Amino acid sequence: MDVSPEQPSPSLSPASGRLRLYAGPDIHPQTLMLRFLLLGSFVASVAVPLCTLIDVPVARWFLNGHLSGDVRQAIGLTESYTHGIGVLFLLISIFTMAPHKRWCVPRLAAMAFGASAVATIVKMFVLRPRPTQLNLTVASHDAAWLWSFDWTLDQIAAFDAGTRSFPSGGIATAVALSVGLSMLFPRGRFLFLLFTLFSTVERLQTGSHFPSDALGGIACGLFWCFVCLHPKLLGILFEQMEPQRRGYRLVNRGIRQQAA
Question: Is 150 helix (H, G, I), strand (E, B) or coil?
C-alpha cells in the first residue's frame, strides 16, 4: 500500500524503454487522496452542529419502527463491520486468502482499530446521552444539545456508555476500514461504501447514536486514515514494513545508476 503522494515510483516500459509511472495491482493514493481525507474530516466536523437540528426527528423516526422487520434484520447483520471481532475476522480472511496482500494487513489493522481508539479518546471528554436514554416521544430539538464537556476528566472513572454517545466509534471503524479496503480491492469500493452506509443506519435504528454522532465518527475515521497514509506521519512507518515499497526503491536506485 504505497502512499507516497509526491512522486510515484517509476519503472521501465518494456515496449518503449522509457520511464512510466508504476501501475501495480494496488491503488497508490496520491496527494489528491490525502487532501480528500483531510477535507472530508474537516467538513464532517463542521457539519456536526448543523446536523443536531435533525437529530431528534431522525431518532424518533427510527424509534417508531418505520423499517420493516426484514430490513432491520438485514441491516443488523452489518454490525460486525463496525465491531472489533468482525474486523479481526476480516483481517484474518485477507491474510489467509490473499497472500500477495498480507503486507498491507498491519496498516489496515492500524487504520480500523486506530480510528476506534481516536473516537474513544474524544468520548472521554464529551458527555452526551444516547437516544435510548431520552424520551424521544416528547423530546424537543433542545434535547439534541444536552452536551457537556469533561475537560479535566473528573468523570472518567465512572465511564457510563449511556452518556458517551459522541462520536460513534463503530462508524469511525467502518469508515477507516472501507478506505483501506477500497485501496486494496478497488473493484469493491462501492460495496465497501454500501457496508459503511448500512452500518451507519444500523447504529441509528438501534438508538445507539444520533446522526451528528455518526458525522463525528466519520470525521474521526477520515482523519485517522490521513494520519496512517501520509508519508510524513505514520505512513513512513508502514512503508518500511511493506516489501512492495522496498522493491520500488530498488527500481529507482537501478534507474539512477543506469542514468549515471
Answer: coil
Give the closest residue to 210 by CA, choosing from 41, 40, 63, 65: 63
Q: Are 31 and 214 in contact (CB under 8 A)?
A: no
Helix pair 105-123, 169-184: axis angle to 10 deg: 160
Cell of 137: 416521544
Sign (positive/negative) of CA torsion 202, 204, 209, 215?
positive
Give, as one character, the DSSP assignment of residue 164: B
* DSSP-derived 3-state class of residue 152: coil
**1-48: pLDDT as tens digits:** 544 444 444 343 344 333 233 334 444 446 788 889 999 999 999 999
Backbone angles phi, psi at 130, to 5 degrees: -80, 160
Q: Which three cell numbers stand for residue 127?
A: 458527555
Q: Where are the domains of the chain?
A: 25-229
Residue 40: name the closest of 221, 200, 164 by CA.
221
Over the stretch 146-190, which tens digit does the pLDDT of each residue have? Answer: 777 877 777 776 666 777 889 999 999 999 999 999 988 989 899
Q: Is the Cβ–Cβ distance between 226 and 34 less than 8 Å?
A: yes
Distance CA 48, CA 88 (A): 30
Whose CA is closest to 216, among 137, 147, 143, 132? 147
**How far separated are the first and last CA of the chain, in Å rounded?**
30
